[in-house]
């Protein structure tokens, strides 16, 4: 069973869901509450038509995510549940967890850690399936030429996150 919450931030509406093991889904900013709720359902979070009141984990996650997006926090340190992923996806996500705030790594860098640089495209697919962006910081993964590549939350959000962390300038992108 999962519980969930949807809340508004200056960036838009965010959705978070948690299982007994930890946060299992994060929906990046959407323009409306309805879109955030819909995105949680797409991620497999069941809906009974009503949002459960946030439990302690969800309240803590909501507070941390809001502080992160406001630039007041550099880490998110609540339990996560990555059980929905395949073995390969979980290895990719665990590797992405090692990318520090304000830094970027390439798809090839991650691929070299999980099976060889020839797996860079598979790494991109695994990151695209990341159920907990921000916690598993897939926005910090870029192409080897420092172009942004893709992002499940959209390139506008990726640029905004990298700008928040001060990484765009390091990559040579205009802010």
Structure, explained:
There is one protein chain. Helix 3 (87-96) crosses helix 4 (107-114) and helix 4 (107-114) packs across helix 5 (120-128). The longest helix is centred in the middle third of the chain and has 14 residues, at 56-69. The chain is an alpha+beta fold. It is globular. The mean pLDDT is 91. The chain has seven helices and five strands, in the order βββαααβααβαα. Helices cover 38% and strands 15% of the residues. A hairpin with a 2-residue loop joins strand 1 (3-9) and strand 2 (12-18). The chain has a three-stranded antiparallel sheet, with helices on both faces. Strands 4-5 form a two-stranded parallel ribbon.
């Amino acid at each position: 069973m999962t519980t969930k919450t949807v809340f508004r931030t200056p960036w838009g509406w965010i959705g978070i869901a948690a299982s007994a093991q930890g946060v299992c889904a994060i929906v990046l900013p959407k323009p409306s509450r309805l879109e955030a709720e819909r995105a949680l359902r797409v991620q497999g979070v069941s809906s009974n038509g009503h949002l459960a009141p946030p439990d302690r984990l969800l309240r803590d996650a909501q507070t941390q995510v809001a502080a992160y997006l406001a630039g007041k926090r550099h880490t998110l340190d609540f339990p996560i549940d990555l059980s929905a992923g395949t073995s390969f996806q979980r290895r990719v996500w665990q590797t992405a967890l090692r990318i520090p705030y304000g830094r970027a790594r390439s798809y090839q860098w991650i691929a070299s850690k999980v099976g060889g640089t020839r797996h860079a495209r598979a790494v991109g697919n695994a990151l695209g399936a990341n159920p907990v962006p921000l916690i598993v910081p897939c926005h910090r993964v870029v192409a080897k030429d420092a172009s942004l590549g893709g992002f499940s939350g959209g390139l506008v959000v990726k640029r905004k996150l990298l700008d928040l962390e001060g990484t765009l300038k390091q990559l040579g992108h205009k802010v």
